């Protein structure tokens, strides 16, 4: 694949070179630079800008003016640039540094309380704030586990990203052939981190409401919870003034089957998606609105549930 597309190596080499330079910059200076680049990105990357505006209008069109939506879109680009800068800097980050700008609050005690049940924990977050630093934060506190991720198409880039996580004590578990390892880790009382808030047609899912619009949503968190008995806990790392972060713990969700398995999967998928939506509504400028969240369209079933054909 890479041989047919040599530009990937050039792009990868360029990204690594830029990362090597900016990764040495002091955090304060780096983030000031990233914020400026994010503002330029809003004006310069027209395709992503228009998609962001379109999605924000769908979600907030009845609540916000066009001027407010455009201001919000600029904030989305700026925050994403800040997040990317922080992720690049992970390679040179001492885990002890996290305490200087991350407020954990009561998140540690909540996690330890849930883990004391002995069934492990499925930690669900969204592409909001800084999701990579969220995993690193819990890794720095000594929690065991890993993050579930898909393999990036270009292997050198994949190894680099996986290596960045590993340096902060966060192993990567690939989605392909991952079920046995995930169940083993959960059975050992570990945390499995998941980012299932995007529309990924290759994954089995159901349609649940997201900002009042049916959105195709992966069912893997609930299916793993039903198979293992592990609860689902939503949590997020939100950016605050001064480029500090705060961990926000959402809902503890304990899926069970009271009618049918299919109904339970759809219902509890809706629960954790609602938990994510509440946080996105509070901090809309920190979510990745350039993702086409409503790309897959539903087909109405005879039972009037929005279920993707072939999903289970």
How would you classify the helix and strand content by structural class?
A: alpha/beta
Q: Rg from C-alpha positions?
A: 20 Å
Apparent shape: globular
Q: Regions with pLDDT < 50 over 5+ consecutive residues?
A: 301-312
**Please, how many domains?**
1
Characterization of this structure:
- The chain is of the alpha/beta class and 312 residues long.
- It has one domain.
- It has eleven helices and nine strands.
- It has helices at residues 7-22, 27-44, 46-60, 66-89, 98-101, 107-115, 131-140, 155-167, 179-187, 220-228, 261-282, and strands at 102-103, 121-124, 145-149, 172-174, 191-194, 205-210, 213-218, 232-240, 244-253.
- The strands form two sheets. A seven-stranded mixed β-sheet has the order 1-9-8-2-5-3-4.
- The radius of gyration is 20 Å and the shape is globular.
Question: Which short descriptors sum up this protein?
Answer:
312 residues, alpha/beta, 7-stranded mixed β-sheet, two-stranded antiparallel ribbon, 48% helix, globular, disordered C terminus
State the gist of this model.
With about 300 residues, the protein is α/β, with parallel strands linked by helices.
Secondary structure topology:
Elements: H1 7-22, H2 27-44, H3 46-60, H4 66-89, H5 98-101, E1 102-103, H6 107-115, E2 121-124, H7 131-140, E3 145-149, H8 155-167, E4 172-174, H9 179-187, E5 191-194, E6 205-210, E7 213-218, H10 220-228, E8 232-240, E9 244-253, H11 261-282
Parallel strand pairs: 1-9, 2-5, 2-8, 3-4, 3-5
Antiparallel strand pairs: 6-7, 8-9
Helix pairs in contact: 2-4, 3-4
